[in-house]
Fold this sequence. Notes:
- The complex is a heterodimer of chains A (about 500) and B (about 180).
- Chain A is an alpha/beta fold and about 500 residues long.
- Chain A has helices at about 5-15, 20-65, 65-70, 70-80, 90-95, 100-105, 130-140, 160-170, 190-195, 260-270, 320, 345-355, 370-380, 395-405, 430-440, 445-450, 470-480; strands at about 115-120, 145-150, 175-180, 205, 230-235, 255-260, 275-285, 295-300, 305-310, 325, 330-340, 360-365, 385-390, 420, 460-465, 485.
- In chain A, helix 7 runs parallel beside helix 8 (about 160-170) and helix 15 runs parallel beside helix 17 (about 470-480).
- Chain B is mainly α and about 180 residues long.
- Chains A and B meet through helix 2, helix 3, helix 4, helix 5 and helix 6 of A and helix 7, helix 8 and helix 9 of B.
Amino acid sequence: MSLDAFRAFVLAFAAHAAKSSKEDIERLIQGSQLRISSLDSQIKSLVEIRDRERACVAALRYLISPIHTLPVELLIEIFKLSIDDVTHIEDAFRISQVCSHWRRTAHNSPRLWTRPLEVDVGKSKKSTRAYADGLKTWLGRSAPLPLDITLLLDSTGVSRRILEEVLRISLRWRALLFDWEGYEPPPLSLVSRLAECRLDSLEELDLGRDAIVRDIDIPDLPSFAAAPNLQVLTICIESNALICGMPWAQLIYLHLECYSSPDDALDILAQCANLESASIRIRGWESDGLAANRDMITLTNLDDLSIPFCGLEEHVTPFFGSLSAPALTTLSLDFSDMQGGLQWTKAYLTEFQLRAPNITRLVFHYGGLTPEDFTTALRYTPSLAELELNACHYFDNTVISALSYEDEVKPLASCLHHLVLSHIHERFTADNLAGMLASRWWTDASELATRLDPPVVRWTYLNFEGFRGQLRDRMAVLQREGLPIRLK
Amino acid sequence: MVLLVTSDNEQFQTEKDIVERSVLIKNMLEDVGESDQPIPLPNVSSSVLKKVTQPSTGPTEIDVRGRYLSTASTTVESPSRPPILEQSQDETRKRTTDISEWDQKFITVDQEMLFEIILAANYLDIKSLLCRRWLQDGSQHDQGARPPEEIRKLFNIVNDFTPEEEAQIKKENEWAEDR
């Protein structure tokens, strides 16, 4: 009915009704209201039927839609690829909240729920109960696969409820880490609880870069020695009275921050016969002879050794006196955290280098060595291929001369082809460095022309940071001549 | 060159380094050795193989590449490369700009082909073609998954959760937000 026709109908109806009595009009109103109710009810039913039909159409469309025809394995693979490491919790939830089919598929795919998880075990949350419940649900979805868990600690203490949920899946911990940055160091009570668990899957344990805090008195220190697969350990010790039991012999990677006696670090290393890589932060000794009477520690498989020295004690080279690493290829020494001077006894390092003849990469950060000490260190690294120096002011003209290839005499470190120099005070001239670099460089064409095996290896990588003025200009010239130089 | 034969019996001469991105074909070539024999691909049609192995030639092709391989962008100026040769995700991210409007248009326009390519990628075992971005929000830098409502809309999926499931989902989301 058009608007005009509707208006005419209402006017005619009103004109007719105007002649009726009040009671008749009220009857007419009642009759109309009844008809309106009936119509409302019919409309509601029709709307429901329409919505149901719409839902049917959508469901039927979905059944024949391409996405529904994807094999489940492929769908899972795409789900997996759609989950980003940073937003993995939101992503996994979003995917599982699309429809019941996707939800079932996601919930039946434990590997979608196994990205490394940070668990805040502190009590500062609005509701630890809700957090623990949510955590339980999340952790349950990854079963039976192993998980990497990082525990975040704060000054509010550890929530028992949340910790229980973490402990409940201890059999599935693949990695257990403490986030120390900006948080509290691990308390002994917590470490003890962790150590009491069955740790069949644990491969990596990171107890943080701060020493364990003794918050309870217990007769025996916690021990992780029964973790059958533990191979990677990060631990900090400040006292030999607080060293947890560890399966030292099965470790292949050790990050040790030792702020107690350096002998404690050596005692630990003596038990780590299978290490392949180690980073040992260690103090020095007060005098040279203190480590002299130790038995030799042989680390047969050690490939990579990094030693950041720290503390006030000046005698650090004795560390090498009782160490043997025949398979070592990388040695990194960092003196930047030493608060006193440096007493360098060449013989200790030289003898160590004789026991480690396969070193190909040396890294030095800072340190008060003399150019002669440094030259000796290079001389006893016969296979040296890569050298990285940061703030090493002993890299001077004499060292550069020893590295120069002149008059067909084999220079120092003749296999060296990778050199990184960062922030080095210029105790050398630009001419000397440029000359040395040029002496160990030639083009493919000139190599073909001479048809001789060169006695030195040609540069493959040169990276210089902090060079200024004339020095930088000279390096830029060499760069244009084809040397593989990067200037920062 | 390698001769490939598709399910609709078309033959394609393709460079070996291109086809070897497919683990399936690479293994076949290793098993057979140097040979002029054609390699049959009974689960891949010629139209799909064209998309996978040939450089883009027009807007549709570029759309398909971008959508599946998460590399195409309105600002890409580098010469076209076959999708099969596309590079890592890191490289991808550097070159990708906001393409969500375009994404939406593409997905609604050409879903059949999208899924055919996904199936072919799975059959040929080409990980780089099993694109991750088709469930992800192209407008977001963090590349998180699209919200469920958006995924439903894009792929005609019905929200068929029970009230109990809806309640569970609400709890999940609250937990994720409070973390």
